[in-house]
Amino acid sequence: MYRDETSIIPIMTGVSSDTDLMSRIAGGETGLIREQAFRLLAARYMSRAQAIAMRIVHHKQDAEDCVQEALTRSWQHAARFDPARSAFSTWFYRILTNAALDRLRRRPPPADNIVDHGDSLADNAATGEDIYLKKREAQRIQNALSALPAQQKLAIVLCYYEDFTQSEAARIMQVHIKALEGLLSRAKKSLKQDLSPAPLSPNRSGLSS
Amino acid sequence: MTHEIDTDLKEKLRQWPLNSHDFSPPGPLIETAMSHAQIIPFGVRIRHELELAFTQWAYALPYKLGAAATCLMIGAGLGGLLEEPVNVAGLALMSLTGTGL
What we know:
The complex is a heterodimer. By secondary structure, chain A is mainly alpha-helical. Chain A contains ten helices and no strands. Mean pLDDT of chain A is 80; it is low at 1-9 and 203-209. By secondary structure, chain B is mainly alpha-helical. Helix content of chain B is 62%, strand content 0%. The longest helix of chain B is centred in the last third of the chain and has 22 residues, at 61-82. Chain B starts with 6 loop residues before the first helix and ends with a helix. The model of chain B has no long low-confidence stretch (mean pLDDT 82).
């Protein structure tokens, strides 16, 4: 190693673009700088990546495995990234969503009790019935999403939860924009059908609070 | 077919929230990823090695010293054989010119 650690400072303090960081990661720099660049770049995308994976596979451990796989692949194959062909975010999310869809094919999410919503739905002012109803509704939404074909589900996750534009989502999914619109329309129709009935009252049997 | 984002549906879907317990700390995931060896294409690796070798004198010093010693030995060997001094670098250039490179 022939560059001292002070040469990392421009990466850490400056606002480096994703492409700059990727060129450092892809072998243009010595080990320490490459690792720092990767830490910085990965940290930018971690929370969104975890949310996407979680919404697709509905299971914390599986979602973590997907994110791990995407990170490892983007580290190992950084030299394959071509900024002329796509933005880093598109490339990274494509790896992530492929990993998540592979996992989903191998192991579909269980139909019930996928995620415990207790912590996220409870607040101090909510009564037990409010929490129960919210929990029930969250469960219905998860079940409705689980029932969608994988590509439709991915389209919904990207466009409705993560606010990607339709052209960005199409690039991530490697489909034509018209195909994405078709996926979204069909998914919307199914979801509206599944979610339209009134939520169950707490007196009915079902999910326990 | 044009798809308009349905704000009612969006609002409805967001009633499935994620909480902080659904997320793993990023540090270990990143460190695990970096524990794998990077796969660098051969051409990129060679170009990078050459760039370092020609821009940093200390990089791969044993190889550089080895190459210099080999040139010296070839020069001395040929010089001894032909009984006159031999310019190894000159010979190398002449051979390259001869092969059209």
